[in-house]
# Entry
Amino acid sequence: MKPPLIVSASSFGNRFLLSLRSVLIIVSVSLGFVSFGQYQFSVGGNYVHSFGDRSIELQSVTYNLDPTYGYEVSANNAYLFSETKLQAVLKVSFRQLFFSGSSDNLTYYGHVNKLFSSAGIRYGISEKIGIAGYIEAENNLALDEFNTGTGDLFRVCLSAEGSYQLTNRFQLNCLLSRAMTPITDAYLITNPQYQVRLGVAYTITP
# Structure
């Protein structure tokens, strides 16, 4: 794999437009679930901090990784099981991560865009506190290369989440995620294995 490339201003603009279209697709798909009365629909936003190995050797070159950070937006659908404290949750999300680092003769920086879905179960410990577990799948290649790419197209992660209900509409979330596969060094340079996400969700339908 080639080392990460510096992202030019024109490339950034093109990727931003692609990202905006991706967000609109996410919202459109998720709104389709609202027609089912048993679903609860919400939208959310998180700050994302990714971490893992601070240095990676690839093709006899050692890369020193700076902290990777970004944001994500999500459309969330929860199926309410009657007379239980359980919810089946499906999320469709867009994430953008900014990475940087250096080697002996190279300083690099850039960003990656990820579309991903999460499926899991949430359990209400009390009226305000909940816990959840998810399995997630995201594009492992760049979005503009995904259709023509081969090999490790998807990245699979396991995530655990804690939530606190501030009001009837607003909920605070904290999530820890670990990539399970693929976790080869070539991919971890731009998208580390672990993530912490902190954010808020807003419930649109009751």
